[in-house]
Known about the structure:
The protein is mainly beta and 167 residues long. Helix content is 12%, strand content 31%. The chain has one domain (6-155). The protein is elongated, with a radius of gyration of 17 Å. Bound molecules: zinc ion (3 copies).
Amino acid sequence: MGHLDDKQYASMIAGCQKCDRTSFEVSSYITREISVMLSEPNADGRWVHDDATFVAGIYKIRCLGCGHEPHATLACPRCERRDGLAEALATSSRISVPRMCPSCKITALTVTASAPARVRTGTSQTTAPTPIARFGEPGFHVVKIMCDACDWSRVAEGCPVCAGPAT
Length: 167
Ligand SMILES: [Zn+2]
Ligand SMILES: [Zn+2]
Ligand SMILES: [Zn+2]
């Protein structure tokens, strides 16, 4: 099963095929930005993804009425690599955040990461995403580190979710 497009997603959350409910729990790998000081987060961070990234990162949709899953994959939702999702959720970040910028030595860095999160859809608005993994936990993958003061940055190679080779 490949990743969803907007149309497939809209039709899946329009109503459950088994029980007619219209609320679902949707899990997706999305993008979070966090300010880090001495390699520790100094705030909770914020989501910075757009709608297209949200839909491209969806790996599970579960009906809140009966538990039916119209969509569930173990492959990476982003690059479709086999078992990529299972690996991404079980492993820690592949790049670690240094205590200070290797170039100018300041200790304030900005981290962009792929993080799994859940939302609830329903007749009213979709809820804000709740993170499933936080900074430092398995499943939370740093994809970019930027210095707040100079132009030093570091980017993780490969797929932003599972680190698989770029396709
Ligand atoms: Zn259902
Ligand atoms: Zn710097
Ligand atoms: Zn991937």
